[in-house]
Amino acid sequence: MNKFLHFLQHVVFICLALLVVNLVVFNFTPYRTAKNDSKYHYISQNDIGNTFKDSETFNKMFGISVSDVIDYCGVLRRMEDAKNKKGSQNLLSSSSSDDEKIANVSRYNDLFNPQRSNIRFYAVEKSGTVVYTQTNLGSASLSADELKKKLLDECDRYIYLDAAGKIFETNTLIEEDTVYSIFRESPSDYPSDTVLMVGLKRAISAPDEYKEAMTAFNAYTVGFYFKAAGLVVCAVIYVFLLVVLTVREGYIRGEDGKRLVKVYPTDRIPFEIRLVLLYPLILVFGLFFETGLGRRAGRLLYGLYVTNILYALIIVAILALTLSFIIAFFYYGFVRRVKAGIWWNTSITCFIVRKIAKLVDEVRGNLPVFIRTWLPYAAFVLYNVVFAYLIYNRRSLRYKLVFSIPLIAVDVIVGYLIYRSLKERSKITDVIDKICEGDISAKADEENVHGENIGFARAVNSIGKSVNDAVNKSMKDEKMKTDLITNVSHDLKTPLTSIINYVDLLKKENINNDTAVGYINILDEKSQRLKQLTDDLVEASKISSGNIVLQYERLNVKALIDQMNAEFYDKFEEKQLSVVTNSPEKDVYISADSRSMFRVLENLMTNINKYALPGTRVYTDITSVNKKVDICLKNISANPLNISSSELMERFVRGDESRTTEGSGLGLSIAKNLTEAMGGTFDIHLDGDLFKVTVSFKEA
Amino acid sequence: MIDILVCDDDKEIVDAIEIYLSKEGYNILKAYDGIEAIETLKKNPSVALLIIDIMMPRMDGIHATVKIRENNSLPIIFLSAKSEDTDKILGLNMGADDYITKPFNPLELIARVNSAIRRYTQLGTLNIDNNAVFKSGGLLLNDDTKEVIVDGKDVKLTPIEYNILMLLVRNKGKVFSIDQIYESIWNEEAIGADNTVAVHIRHIREKIEINPKEPRYLKVVWGVGYKIENYGD
């Protein structure tokens, strides 16, 4: 819809331009005179509705033509005179203005050439016995009456003047007095019995200014009110479209049906740049009118209009369309930017204003720093400049040396102070680095530092102390937590000991009640599980709180797996689990804590023993790739694993909650935490019934 | 009848131990704190073994042990809920001979008590002035008779098990890798992953240790190998 409206607006603009050009550019007509080749005058509003030959325009032109003819005839007569006299008189009587006229004769010849002019005239003058006859009607030998008849034959507008008989005839608006005054003012001393007749051809066919003027006149006046009305209508439509489009422009429907502002990439161009783009355009327009190029272009267009109206219209239309596009680009771009609220944000002014605001903020926020750094620096520079000037200005070497001493001394002192300050600061920075790396007991030297660095050193030490305190506190808290769990478990263990022992004793009593024996078995099983749980709980808490001491050794992974397999050999055999070990030819070593490593693998093997499907194979694979050792244990689960691997590693989570097998649910969590405590990675992968654990360490 | 003093602030535990050990033919004396234990020991010098808890009111087991050790060398077994390594090391350094954690397996308790009593009553009388006898603490191998005695009790080992144990006891304290053991016993190069040695060692452990999971003599150094703990001759 908007696109259509835009299109419409362009079309309306073209129409507007065509009408304006028609009504503005063509409302003047050119006319030529012998003195000044071409002039223009506006078509009078009174002429609208008249035909060309009845118009003021025509009458003005015709008046000028009459004046030209009078001039022309005078010049011709004088030239004939001069020819006849052939003597010194000629030189005496000829004035400078006469010479000018004679020089103009070729122009007149051209102007009134019957082939190219629509004006016809003749003049008969009697000067004593000599009769001068001037005409462009073709034959000068005809009598005056014959000439008049011929002229009337060809022309429909004319003036006829018989000075001797005081006869003046015309069917134009030119008045007798006007013609007489031209006669009188003419330097050519017309004889009193001159007969002059000037006419305009019935059909204006020769390509002279009358033809042009008539074309322009018709173009302007014919349908003038219609065109004026069209202009007004177009202007109204244009303004209306402008308003409508201004309201509608930029909005589009988003995917959710909400109204959004569509911004084109070109809209991001700051408006200053747009103005800069616009500037050459304005400049071109200005130059166009300022240098007369515009007039010349107008004349060209006018000429084209007269000769080929279609080309002229096409050119005007193209120019108008271009202008319309430019207007739309700038105006609607601005509208979109205003709507999107980015016209200000994207502007360079905004950018500069923000930068300045930021700078001001920075200076204001760091005013003390600003003063502390720039003032001494300025003083230092000033000092140097002053002394350098003094040294430079002295002629005597002695004075040069005298002034050099304070300059060099101060420069050396300042250099040393800067060096000392930076050296001290770098020491403090080293301490900060140490604290960052975890050496929280690092202390900065507060005694042997100067100036600002004292404050720095104190601040760093105070930060170090806070960090130290915080770490100590959190370690204490963690220790307390572990201690709490340990103590609780001790307190649990004492009654548990009795439970286990008396259950055991109960089992040894000869009880003949099967139900009671069943109950006792349950008690036995559960109390054993409670025992396991308390042990694992303490261990898990110790590992996760980092409360374990690890002694790293170089462990042979193959040997470790062999030892593990030996430990579980019987248990696996009971469940018909066969172990398949794949290991590399050469021994692979890792750096880990021997007992913790055993604990990790024991937990995993216990897990396999508990949950593997009897009669399946268990794979223990050792691989060493890129200095990384993977111990991979795979088994087929007896029950479906409807749980994620990350959940499995959580504390107290077991593969299947419904199973009532022994175990605390801490095994995998302990194995994972222990592995990670030793710098390894622990990963569980479940694929259907395949349960796969990979423990990875860096090769040592 | 051999007298054993059991000291724990939990009466039920003392009673349970009494039941177990009475069945083994021991006479049980009871005490419920450290001071009582010291007094009972003074009154009954015939006591051959003390089983004592650590955490008790009035005087704890550690202090009591230190006191008792001033003038008495009877075997002392700690029976404690404290299961940390540090606790065990502390207890053994304070003069205890063994350390059992609660909750205990009654069979293990009995085995450890028997072993401690045997060491206390018999070991001193054994003839060890023999070049063919190798020992570490209560573990003794006689290479002439191919006998293995643990805490005064005969243990039957297969020839391969005996050879392995002999290798380790001769070099007690030194850790042997699986390959080293294999090469020494079978006199051939160890090739490929084979847990023969590991399985044999486990069997030896099951035979000579009261609790194979916490071996006293034949220790497993996981990922490295095996050794016999050096308790001296």
Write the layout of secondary structure elements.
The complex is a heterodimer of chains A (700) and B (233).
Chain A: H1 2-25, E1 28-31, E2 39-42, H2 56-85, H3 88-93, H4 96-111, E3 119-127, E4 130-135, H5 144-154, E5 155-162, E6 167-170, H6 176-185, E7 195-201, H7 209-221, H8 224-248, E8 251-253, E9 259-261, H9 271-290, H10 293-307, H11 309-340, H12 348-365, H13 367-393, H14 397-437, H15 452-508, H16 514-544, E10 552-556, H17 557-574, E11 578-582, E12 589-593, H18 594-611, E13 617-625, E14 628-636, H19 645-648, H20 667-677, E15 681-687, E16 690-698
Parallel strand pairs in A: 11-13
Antiparallel strand pairs in A: 1-2, 3-4, 3-7, 5-6, 5-7, 8-9, 10-12, 13-14, 14-16, 15-16
Chain B: E1 2-7, H1 11-23, E2 26-31, H2 34-43, E3 47-52, H3 61-69, E4 76-80, H4 85-93, E5 98-101, H5 106-121, E6 133-136, E7 139-142, E8 147-150, E9 153-155, H6 159-170, H7 178-186, H8 196-208, E10 218-221, E11 225-228
Parallel strand pairs in B: 1-2, 1-3, 3-4, 4-5
Antiparallel strand pairs in B: 6-7, 7-8, 8-9, 10-11
Helix pairs in contact in B: 2-3, 6-8
Please, could you describe this protein's structure?
- The complex is a heterodimer of chains A (700) and B (233).
- Helices cover 61% and strands 14% of the residues of chain A.
- Chain A is of the alpha+beta class.
- Chain A has 5 domains: 2-19 and 223-348, no CATH class; 53-204, no CATH class; 367-435; 465-547, Helix Hairpins, CATH 1.10.287; 549-698, Heat Shock Protein 90.
- In chain A, strands 4-3-7-5-6 form a 5-stranded antiparallel sheet, with helices on both faces. Chain A has a 5-stranded mixed sheet with strand order 11-13-14-16-15. Chain A has a two-stranded antiparallel sheet with strand order 1-2.
- In chain A, a hairpin with a 5-residue loop joins strand 8 (251-253) and strand 9 (259-261).
- The relative contact order of chain A is 0.05.
- Residues 88-94 and 656-660 of chain A have low confidence and may be disordered.
- Chain B has 233 residues and is an alpha/beta fold.
- Chain B has 2 domains: 2-121, Rossmann fold, CATH 3.40.50.2300; 129-228, Winged helix-like DNA-binding domain superfamily/Winged helix DNA-binding domain (Arc Repressor Mutant, subunit A), CATH 1.10.10.
- Chain B has helices spanning 11-23, 34-43, 61-69, 85-93, 106-121, 159-170, 178-186, 196-208; strands at residues 2-7, 26-31, 47-52, 76-80, 98-101, 133-136, 139-142, 147-150, 153-155, 218-221, 225-228.
- In chain B, the strands form 3 sheets. Chain B has a 5-stranded parallel sheet, sandwiched between helices. A 4-stranded antiparallel sheet of chain B has the order 6-7-8-9, covered by helices on one side.
- In chain B, strand 6 (133-136) and strand 7 (139-142) form a beta hairpin.
- The mean pLDDT of chain B is 84.
